[in-house]
Write a structure and sequence with these properties.
The complex is a heterodimer. By secondary structure, chain A is an alpha/beta fold. Chain A is built from 9 helices and 10 strands. The chains are: A alpha/beta, B alpha+beta. Chains A and B meet through helix 2, helix 4 and helix 6 of A and helix 1, helix 7 and helix 8 of B.
């Protein structure tokens, strides 16, 4: 579904990633670790097409990102659920409309996904906060809302950047359990995190592959995980 | 639980946050420009009416001045009237009565003028019938048969006025075009500002899979609606101001004849939809321009 072929990325003359080859196939579960500033977020942004690789190929659903039109990229993004570190909401819209935004922009407000909206909000524990504006939400609530928004269209791939950074342990486990369930349904999951406990908790449930970014290159993590 | 979502069109409008300054700027610009457009339109129509009226007068009337010694004047007058009665294209030829001549001279020489005592030429008012007479041919006949008669077809002083009125109409139409262009530029500027201020919104919309046409449409709808309501208010104010002008029947002059006439009152109603069309095109061009430039 998403494949990196010897990808390098530079910004302002600085090489952030080099020789990255990675395949997010259906049913795979990946963790991406590395110190802050190592390029985890950059790799995720390449994976959903926000950035274009400086070298190599990023294939999004069998299409080279570099050759995709804006419309094609928009359609591909509907198949990728993204949970950003800073969540990214429209602050003037209430939570429920933010979560439903992927339905709105894809013209699917009347479909079955809309019917599941309340259920999804209840699952992430935000049913009572549906009318709240994003600035009124706590960090954990924002992160759960971002997750709900990423899942509303039933994406094929889920990319999450530090998705449990603002969540308590119980909520983190609930979130991970959901991601594992989705993974078992055939979705590809990639989580960028530096929370080793989280990685261990997931590895107990599913065969997850752990990658580490070191010296701009992606490698398999060591035996400690 | 089934939370209620708004209708898709309403939701599409709501993705753009309310942008106070740019929205007010768009409404104000559209309103002010529509107000000016009403006046420019009225000026164009009035100038057109004036040009037509003067043109008609130019083509339809003439004066023949018969200057001759007092004992020959009556005979020359009869001769000229005889010539006119056989001239093709002349509908009517009538010698002015002394009272009419007195009325013509009164503004300069005052009332109670002893006109009979003055050596004034006799005047003949000529009314042409379509397609008109041949002035050069008439002049030659008069020169041959009534040497004291001079044909004045008014062209000397009416033609520059007709030209001026026609140019005034062109200027008014150019003003309307400039108003349209300025409106487009101002609204495009406001749309640019709104889009630049909402980069984060655009980023979120793209993140969730919005196509550029969806994002552009959200801004275009907002600005088009603003322009429409602003222009409607400006047009209404302009029409009210026009209605408050003195009626053209009361004084008959150019300035008092500036108000719309009859069915022409319907013409300003086209201004708000045209302003909306201009806003639509300007915002759409600005939106796609900005979206193309964003990563």
């Amino acid at each position: 579904m998403i494949e990196f072929r010897n990808v390098a990325h530079r910004y302002g003359g600085t090489e952030l990633l080099a020789e990255v080859s990675l395949r997010l196939a259906p049913g795979t579960f990946h963790f991406l670790t590395g110190p802050s500033g190592s390029g985890k977020t950059t790799l995720l942004r390449l994976a959903y097409g926000e950035l274009v690789a400086s070298a190599g190929e990023v294939m999004l659903f069998d299409k080279d990102r570099r050759k995709m039109t804006r419309d094609e990229l928009a359609l591909v993004r509907r198949r990728i659920g993204v949970v950003h570190q800073d969540c990214q909401f429209l602050d003037h819209l209430p939570l429920i409309e933010n979560v439903a935004l992927p339905l709105v922009v894809s013209g699917r407000t009347g479909g079955p996904e809309s019917e599941g909206l309340g259920e999804l909000l209840a699952w992430v524990g935000l049913a009572a906060r549906a009318g709240a504006l994003p600035p009124e939400l706590s960090g954990g609530e924002r992160q759960r809302a971002a997750l709900a928004r990423a899942l509303i269209l039933g994406p094929d791939v889920i990319l999450a950047d530090e998705p449990t950074g603002n969540l308590d342990w119980e909520m983190s486990l609930r979130l991970l359990t959901l991601l594992v369930e989705l993974n078992r349904m055939g979705k590809a999951v990639l989580i960028a995190t530096h929370d080793l406990n989280l990685i261990r908790a997931v590895k107990a449930q599913v065969a997850a592959r752990v990658l580490r970014i070191r010296d701009r290159r992606v490698q398999a993590a060591g035996a400690e995980l | 639980m089934r939370p209620a979502l708004r209708a898709p069109e309403t939701q599409a409008d709501r993705v753009v946050p309310p942008s106070g300054f740019t929205a007010r700027l768009t409404s104000f610009t559209a309103g002010a420009m529509a107000f000016l457009a009403v006046f420019a339109l009225a000026l164009a129509l009035a100038a057109g009416r004036l040009a037509d009226r003067w043109q008609d007068a130019l083509e339809g009337t003439a004066t023949i001045r018969v200057s001759a010694p007092a004992d020959q004047q009556a005979a020359q007058l009869r001769r000229v009237l005889g010539i006119l009665s056989t001239t093709p294209g002349v509908a009517e030829a009538r010698a002015l009565e002394p009272d009419e001549q007195r009325a013509l001279l009164e503004p300069w020489l005052g009332p109670d003028l002893p006109i009979e005592a003055l050596p004034l030429p006799a005047l003949i008012a000529v009314t042409a019938a379509p397609p008109g007479y041949d002035p050069e041919g008439l002049r030659m006949r008069l020169a041959a048969e009534a040497p004291g008669a001079v044909l004045d077809d008014h062209s000397r002083w009416r033609r520059p006025l007709v030209t001026a009125a026609a140019r005034l109409r062109l200027l008014a139409l150019a003003a309307i075009a400039l108003i349209g262009g300025a409106t487009a530029a101002m609204i495009a500027l406001a749309a640019h500002a709104a889009l630049a201020a909402n980069r984060q919104v655009i980023g979120v919309l793209r993140l969730v899979g919005a196509r550029d046409v969806y994002i552009a449409r959200a801004f275009v709808r907002r600005f088009t609606r603003r322009a429409l309501t602003g222009a409607a208010a400006g047009t209404a104010a302009g029409m009210a101001a026009m209605a408050a002008l003195p009626s053209m029947d009361e004084a008959g002059g150019f300035l008092t004849g500036l108000a719309f006439d009859g069915l022409h009152w319907a013409l300003p109603l086209a201004i708000p939809p045209l302003a909306a069309l201009v806003a639509f095109a300007a915002t759409r061009a600005a939106a796609f321009g900005i979206l193309r430039g964003l990563p």
